[in-house]
Amino acid sequence: MDLFDLSGKTAVVIGGSSTLGGVMAEALAAYGAKIALTGRKAENAEPVRQRIESAGGQARSYAIEATSKADLELLLQEVTSWSGGVDILLNCPGVNSAKPFFDIEEEDWDKIMDVNAKSVMIACQVFGKYMVERGRGGSIINLSSVSSTLPLSRVFTYSASKAAVNNMTQFLAREFAPARVRVNAIIPGFFPAVQNRAILSEERVASIMGHTPLGRFGDPSELQGAVVYLASERASGFVTGSLLRVDGGFGSMTI
After folding, report:
1. How far is it, in rounded angstroms, from Cα 249 to Cα 146?
2. What is the CATH number of the domain that holds 15?
3. Is residue 5 part of a domain?
């Protein structure tokens, strides 16, 4: 028995055009899942789709606004028409802003909360309802952050949005459990990507390394095992409401 076989499953990856979302999507495809990738523009996810198909997998790209319920409902219709169903939802849209607290404007707050938290709520409504009503179980995986549990400087709104993701994850794990729909989150540590390069000054990097027992940044590929594990009902069928850290020990440090 292959604990991680995802053959016959379909995964929707919201934010599949991002660095981390794309790498995790490739892992799900490598274990047999069909992949529906999303981005604000379909072409943004094309490089990921091409890599998946070059490796023998099946994938399609869709242009959606992650904060639009209408877009997500249309996406559900299009993906089920293509693949016959949706079994896995991976929520990993994300935006950040590095501003001191007193410089945060309402527009900054609204944008970050909309993309990072509201989009997760809406996606869980649309796809969670589908999974619950279908009655065949499912796996929802939300991408959180180490800043969701520890106060990190200069990322106040981002941290608040990711704390909301943790709360939603555990709330919905309880709500969806009777239908065997599992809801978990991955808490990644520091994985250099387009989104966070602006705040990785030399001083900040030194601080991060001093707080990471493994003493290095993570490589995006090191998230692949976590996402496949949580996607597979055979491997993690009794796991729901968990916040799985992949952070090099960052969350274990105090002084």
Report:
1. 10
2. 3.40.50.720
3. no
Q: What is the 3-state secondary structure (H, E, C) of 145-170?
A: CHHHCCCCCCCHHHHHHHHHHHHHHH
What pLDDT is attached to residue 1? Answer: 67
Q: What is the pLDDT of residue 190?
A: 92
What length does the chain have?
Answer: 255
Residue with tokens 């279908």: 134
- Residues identified as active-site: 158
Residue 142 amino acid letter: N
pLDDT given for residue 165 in this prediction: 98
- Is residue 4 domain-resident? no
Query: Measured between alpha carbons, how far is 57 from 114 in angstroms, rounded to an integer?
Result: 32
Strand 181-188 with 138-143, pairing: parallel
User: How close are the terminal C-alpha atoms of the chain, in Å?
Assistant: 44
**Which residue ranges in the chain fall short of pLDDT 50?**
none
Give the total number of structural domains in the chain.
1
Q: What is the pLDDT of residues 3-37, one digit of tens each?
A: 999 999 999 999 999 999 999 999 999 999 999 99
CB 91 within 8 A of CB 120: yes
Residue type, 88: I
Residue 254 placed within a domain? no
